Amino acid sequence: MLDNIQVERLEAEAVNSAKTRQPLYAARKKIFPKRASGSFRRFKWLVMAITLGIYYLTPWLRWDRGPFAPDQAVLIDLANRRFYFFFIEIWPQEFYYVAGLLVMAGIGLFLVTSTVGRAWCGYTCPQTVWVDLFLVVERAIEGDRNARMKLDAGPWAARKLVLRVSKHAIWLVIGAATGGAWIFYFADAPTLIREVFTGTAAPIAYITIAVLTATTYTFGGLMREQVCTYMCPWPRIQAAMLDENSLTVTYNDWRGEPRSRHAKKVLAAGQPVGDCVDCNACVAVCPMGIDIRDGQQLECITCALCIDACDGVMDKLGKERGLISYATLSDYNANMAVATAGGSCSVNPSLVRTDGGVFSDRLAHFHLRKIFRPRTFVYMGAWSAIGLALLYSLLTRDRLDVSVLHDRNPQFVTLSDGSIRNGYTVKLLNMIPEPRTIVVTMQGLQRAEMNVVGIDLPADRSFAIAVEPDRLKMLKIFVRQPAEQLKGQAQTFKFRVEDKASFEVDEYTATFNAPEILR
Amino acid sequence: MSNEHIDEVSGISTTGHEWDGIRELNNPLPRWWITTFYITILWAIGYTIAYPAWPMLSSATKGVIGYSSRNDVKNELAAAEIAKGKYVAAVQSKTVVEIAADDALREFAGAAGGAAFKVNCVQCHGSGAQGSSGFPNLNDDDWLWGGSAEQIQQTITHGIRFSSDPDTRQSEMPAFRDIITADQIRKVSAYVASLSGPVQDESLVEPGAKVFAENCVACHGENAKGNKEFGAPDLTDAIWLYGSGEASIAAQVRAPRQGVMPAWGGRLGDTKVKELAVYIHSLGGGE
What we know:
Structural class of chain B: mainly alpha
Distance between the termini of chain A: 126 Å
Helix content of chain B: 40-55%
CATH class of the largest domain in chain B: Mainly Alpha
CATH architecture of the largest domain in chain B: Orthogonal Bundle
Largest interface: A-B, 34 and 36 residues
Radius of gyration of chain B: 36 Å
Oligomer: heterodimer
Shape of chain A: elongated
Strand order of the largest sheet of chain B: 1-2
CATH superfamily of the largest domain in chain B: Cytochrome c-like domain
Largest sheet of chain A: 5 strands, antiparallel
Radius of gyration of chain A: 35 Å
Distance between the termini of chain B: 93 Å
Mean pLDDT of chain A: 89
Number of helices of chain A: 16
């Protein structure tokens, strides 16, 4: 009976059926980078020592500027709006030097990336350097890769608790030191450090330390490679910066494939086998947790630790180094063409070697001259042009400056004897940290005289005035011209300021206004 | 999701949307990202509880920490009052001459006086204190009632011809059309005009001088230099309150206009008046 009833079968499935349900988020896959050793690792230690040294020690360098300026070599004095860098002092209106340096840094990044790939990411980026530092701490306390993996998988016993607490405590101390070093760039370091420890520093100092401690600890200790992969824009931009002649960390599968862990067995079976023994050393040392053998990828910061790891293995196996190496795409493609006989077969390692087992001379090798190509010349040219322009402007800049504002309301005043008076706000800038006597002279407007508000000087065409070190002196000057001397509604003349001791001179061309109809 | 589509290359399911053959992978978000997202939601809820946020019928919720931007302004204004307190105290205790002699005080009082001038004085004297016909220019060096800082202070405090202030500056030039003839007015106008410039009919100057000596010297002085005691203007200079030239002078002799300035002492207080006096004195014409 039931067999006869036809029920239509519908194509439907619950939206949350286990078959199609997707997790809303993906947990981070833990990475336990193994310690690498080799020339790139040594180079990275060196870069780390230099960059961290510069960061932590710079505020403590002293530079004598005399009694009227701070003696800290590098100081961003926000309260007084001055920036000191060794022998250079920058006023706020000279901020274009900093803008110029930032442009140079940008073009420099293009230049470096177009030649040696993401060297910035791999060696000098603060994120990389601090993660490296945090990994040093992690390895010192918890051991290398295997010990850390075991500890992580193990239960929360007393030992694990002690190790973890001490690791995070040291990370926090590094974070606090990083934040602590930052604030010394903004105030006199020896004074500030005393204030910080006696609790008398400004609240903003403690807030800055707290924020930078939190970010250093979070980014360097907890988030690490996720900052590069998810948060940083540079991995996205780099694709436009690289070209076929840029050096990138490359797995040379033209000699590595087909990889095998049992090379002898495979060879005995008469099949081709490449140099890669699939030991995964390159993956184990990678701070990003990726496999370089999958090719160039967004996550790769080109720290070259996989090169060190692989070279070590190749040395053990008695093979040539460079299975993973810095190579350009064009060299790689040329070598792939050799290994695949122009793409007609899969990689055959016998094609890249001669019968004697050494590399064929048909293989392409990187040559230094590939760095010199039109693109890098353009970057280099723009970079040096801006650098030279900044340098020229720095060496020839004025340290004595005058600027003048003409009174606009009223533009002129008729005095009782019929003469015409104009008012000017004159700003004298003494941009060196020494007191100076500046002589202000009027040039042009014969028989006109000036006097200065608040300064008891007889009306004259010239006067001397003391200007405090590293300060602006604002003067209200009235210029008075007899009626019979007036020539037209607007006459120009010059305010000339001069330091008689250093012979520095600056001039400002001002206008003298008079009424249209003179009585 | 029976029509679920798995991307062949990556093995990851897609969102099911397709644009010109391009499908979007449905990769899950990283956990830290989604955690941060939830934290921002919690933060937003906490924020709207802590700070004024939710609109109600007539106002909004006040927030449990009692923040208000008006209080912020009040505190900032109070802090500014305290910061300028020592200057205000100095202005209160010192005379205008002492204030004008001190660089820092002159700058402070000048700025405060400038602000008060913009509010109270520009209606008649103009925004640059340049005046206009009937309203004196305060930038120049010609003063009806005296241009020292103290005299300016006195004028501002008590006003000019301001009947409700007993100490106001008082004077009144009579209407000479009731006293002398039209011919005499013509002559004396020519004489006065000749003191500061050329006149059309030189023959009127001589008889005009005689009319002047008989009628005007009491206030304007024998040499027509005026008298600041009575606010009598100097008739020999280039500055004319009611216009220069014989016709304007004749009009003023016939039926003089007399300017009135209110007394500001009671309204602005002694300190503000001092600041105004210092400001006006610094405009360039101060004596």
